Amino acid sequence: NRAYTVDLAATVSVRNVSAAHEITLEWVRYYDSVGKHVRDYLAKPSTLPTMGSVEFVVQRADTTGGPGANFLIRWYAAVAVDEPLVEAIMLGQSGNAGISFSSRGRTLTAAVER
Questions:
Q1: Cβ neighbours of residue 40 under 8 Å, at least 6 residues apart?
Q2: What is the pTM of this model?
Q3: For the chain, what is the radius of gyration of the CA atoms?
Q4: Cα–Cα–Cα angle for 101, 48, 28, nearest 5°?
Q5: pLDDT in tens for each of the 114 residues of the chain?
Q6: Distance from C-alpha of 53 to C-alpha of 14, rounded to nearest angstrom
Q7: Where are the alpha helices (DSSP H) in the chain?
Q8: Alpha-carbon gap, residue 70 to 32, rounded angstroms
């Protein structure tokens, strides 16, 4: 049997759910299926205003991440706030069939290099 894969576009959305405080995205990193760092999506830390959102896109033709690619996002706030909502939406098609699914991000508690 030959494995069949469908290339998908991915959009990772980060939403600041605080109505009172901004958050700062320190970095957004993209890793491939074997854990190799592929690229950074921010050149410098970026502020996300109250109730603001930002998206990071991997085009369908960009297969550098492979089928098990990952994003890691480090954020912080000056005061205690709720965690931002991080979700990924993957979209593509195979023949006449449209393919889409979403995945919610999760918090990692282990230290990640700075």
A1: 27, 28, 29, 30
A2: 0.87
A3: 16
A4: 55
A5: 557 788 899 999 999 999 999 999 999 999 999 999 999 999 999 999 999 999 999 999 999 999 899 999 999 999 999 999 999 999 999 889 999 999 999 888 765 555
A6: 5
A7: none
A8: 6
